[in-house]
Design a protein that fits this description.
about 375 residues; alpha+beta; Alpha-Beta Plaits; 2 domains; nine-stranded mixed beta sheet; 15 strands; binds fructose -6-phosphate; binds magnesium ion; EC 4.1.2.13; magnesium ion binding
């Protein structure tokens, strides 16, 4: 059977400041999804990462389904009502429009979804990040699907030996390009290292991977660029990603392994700082230190006949303790730079923050030099 797995997120308010989605908001979203379960959708799971409300929905409507998007929109709307009632900070922040117009894309929420033919067993991982941007997935996705030092299967598993195809988006120019790895590896790295502009959107098994069912992605990442949509700074586009694993695809452990490196990502305070990405269990997705440091959570499900079995809170494993400790050390080191680069983002990336307003204020005081 064909199942669609959709991870949809929005920041519709949190306690205190931009920190954590309270239970009441999750309950509001659940009440809408519960109503749809067994009718328009197969199953759902609601969670949060920091100030982002996360909806995981399974259904048979395919990608870009107006019906499913409307259900998600209504869930966010109901949570927004609750957030307003409780006077929460940033209530309704990511819902950039008052009315649903048929497609949730471009309206604020972030989406990662894929349709796939269910196999005998279907492990699916949902990654959710707060206080960072979609390009934060570039490094881990590269490692999972292209780095044999991370993914033993690229060397050892004949099904994976031919490599993977990466669909990369230039989010500034609205263009896309496919890279066939390992052949195109160096060309791809030349681009995706610039992670604020070139973003991995999907990864596919190569057609000569005998386990590939053509054009079914192994991974998909949300790339909505909230600040571009709204035309001003309205928070970072805290991203989500969905990754399928096992039998011909990377194993669960290969999918999680890249997160043992607390890579530097942009986001953190006012979406304007570089900081370490810290993998945490859901209960520790509470970015309060300088509104951070940026967090990643991961929930591992089995999907069977469209139903969600689990989840396992993947980063609850103490094997990630050392990564967290390293992230604390990197946080101290980066924070010591205060408003100086490279803790603060480079000037071009400050364009969509409140910095231009400050520049405008002092602009008239500049004089020409002789
Ligand atoms: C970062 C984030 C927070 C806010 C900061 C200021 O993504 O959400 O760091 O940018 O708390 O928030 P405002 O401008 O709403 O006072
Ligand atoms: Mg917020
Ligand atoms: Mg957020």
């Amino acid at each position: 059977m064909e199942t669609t797995f959709s991870a949809i997120k929005a920041d519709v308010g949190s306690v205190a400041g931009h920190h954590v989605v309270p239970e009441e908001l999750e309950e509001s979203a659940i009440s809408v999804l519960e109503e749809a379960k067994g009718k328009d959708i197969f199953d759902y799971f609601v969670t949060h990462c920091g100030d982002d409300l996360e909806l995981i929905i399974t259904h048979d409507k395919g990608e870009d389904s107006e019906e499913v998007y409307e259900i998600a929109w209504n869930a966010f709307l109901k949570a927004t009502e609750k957030a307003k009632e409780l006077g929460l900070y940033g209530a309704g922040q990511d819902l950039l429009s008052d009315a649903f117009s048929g497609n949730i894309k471009g309206m604020g929420p972030g989406i990662a979804e894929m349709e796939f033919k269910e196999r005998k067993s279907n492990p699916v991982f949902t990654f959710m990040m707060d206080k960072t941007e979609p390009g934060a997935f570039n490094l881990p996705m590269y490692k999972i699907f292209a780095d044999p030092f991370n993914t033993a299967g690229l060397v050892l598993d004949p099904n994976m030996h031919s490599g993977f195809v990466f669909e990369v988006w230039d989010i500034k120019e609205s263009k896309k390009i496919n890279f066939y790895c390992p052949n195109d590896l160096y060309d791809m790295l030349a681009l995706i290292g610039a992670k604020s502009r070139y973003v991995i959107k999907r990864v596919y098994p190569k057609e000569d991977n005998p386990k590939a069912t053509s054009q079914e992605p192994a991974a998909v990442i949300s790339t909505e660029k909230l600040s571009h949509i709204a035309g001003e700074y309205v928070g970072k586009d805290d991203p989500v990603a969905v990754v399928r694993g096992q039998s011909g695809l990377p194993a669960a452990g290969e999918i999680l392994e890249p997160f043992t490196h607390p890579e530097l990502v942009s986001g953190w305070m006012k979406g304007s700082h570089n900081g370490p990405l810290m993998p945490v269990p859901v209960e520790d997705a509470t970015p309060t230190r300088f509104d951070g440091p940026p967090r990643a959570i991961c929930l591992g499900f089995q999907v069977k006949d469209g139903m969600l079995i689990g989840p396992v809170d993947s980063f609850a494993d103490p094997a990630f303790d050392k990564t967290r400790e390293k992230a604390h050390q990197v946080s101290d080191y980066m924070r010591a730079h205060g408003p100086f680069e490279p803790h603060r983002l480079p000037e071009e990336e400050m364009e969509y923050t409140t910095l231009p307003d400050v520049m405008e204020k002092i602009n008239h005081r500049f004089e020409d030099m002789d």
